[in-house]
Amino acid sequence: MKNASEIFEYLESQGDQAMEILRAQAFTPHNRKKLRQWGITEAAEMIGRTTQHIRQQEKAGILPSAETGTKGRTYSLEQINSLRNHFETRPGRSSGDETCILAFANFKGGAAKTTSSVHASQYFAKAGYRTLFIDCDSQASATQIFGYNPDEHIATNETLLPYLLEDIESPSSVIRKTNWPGLDLIPANLALYGAEFSLPAKAATAIIERKQYPFYSILQEGLNKIKENYDIIILDCPPSMGVISINAIYAANAFIIPVPPSMLDFASTIQFFSMLKEVLSQLPEKKFGFVRLLITKHDGHESSNTLVDTIRTLFGSFVMQNVMYTSEAIRKASSDLLTLYEIEKYQGAKSTYLRAMHFTDEVNKEIERAVRKTWESDQDRFGKTLNLNTDELVAAGS
Ligand SMILES: Nc1ncnc2c1ncn2[C@@H]1O[C@H](COP(=O)(O)OP(=O)(O)OP(=O)(O)O)[C@@H](O)[C@H]1O
Ligand SMILES: [Mg+2]
Predict the structure, then answer these.
(1) Which top CATH class is 38-87?
(2) Which residues are within 8 A (CB) of 313 and not within 5 positions of it... i.e. 6 or more apart?
């Protein structure tokens, strides 16, 4: 019989080789990730002006002309954003509005937290919002989708870790640009997991030394230092209820819980609610602008429909109207470490791609509406902010 460390050393080295082969097939490094361009019709829609109006202004020399390539006139997101600035159609919060800090969390693994949060971040960036994505998961799945190999491109001091350990004063120095204009990233790698040991150890020392150490609000304080630069900050949480998740949930002012409509996934989600209730009841009171369950990976089967009906009956408006259906296009994009928003030409049935794109967009539009409802300046358009404290929240969800 071999001892455990030998077995895992062997598995690790084989695994590293396997990842190298797989990455060579699927991975486009961040510096080679090129964002698609948009044709005049789509660009005009994104800008909020007619194609004629844009063309007239280009002809009159008021606006620089779009690039004309093999596919006709195309616009980059950078150009689209500067046209939005020119026409004053770029969306965003007013200075008096709070930056939306939106956590995607569920204790259950594989619930589509990363898929949903990365798509949401790109949707917001595409719409012109100033967006920051924070990978709070040491598995670093989102970091890879953004084109970084966490073992190779990300040093230990380039994640949230040095800020959580108070080695740096603000998370601002670990923010980097992505291939999406207007979308910044704080990446993750495995070393981030170290926070799960270091923070409790610091908390224990603080108790012995009779000092205050609010371990749960470190991220919140860090985001207070940088949130002014963004309309929305999206947090992708790990599938656990450790100190990083607690920090993320405590820092958030809005919360999406992705849940696939299967008995076991749902049962885990209920356990998650129970943990949240326990944990949050021990911390200073917390308010959320909105909290929503997002049904993910819906396979359209009768048994899933029945479960969704039950969830809707019991949880009412806590459940998002739109649903993420299981899709071959999402599965395929994810195995190429891409999102639907990054695909310019889908290799497969166009209808599959368009269907996936439709329900992803609808989910994200609904999230956008919920975010905008929390902005005072949008109140006239969208009605009053839902302001629940955790007790009300849990009571309504139980
Ligand atoms: N709508 C969908 N259609 C098809 N596959 C999907 C869909 N949503 C997610 N997946 C796939 O399910 C798997 C898990 O998704 P994802 O990584 O987003 O979950 P997660 O909750 O972030 O997982 P973890 O708990 O490990 O962080 C991935 O392989 C992803 O491609
Ligand atoms: Mg994930």
Answers:
(1) mainly alpha
(2) none
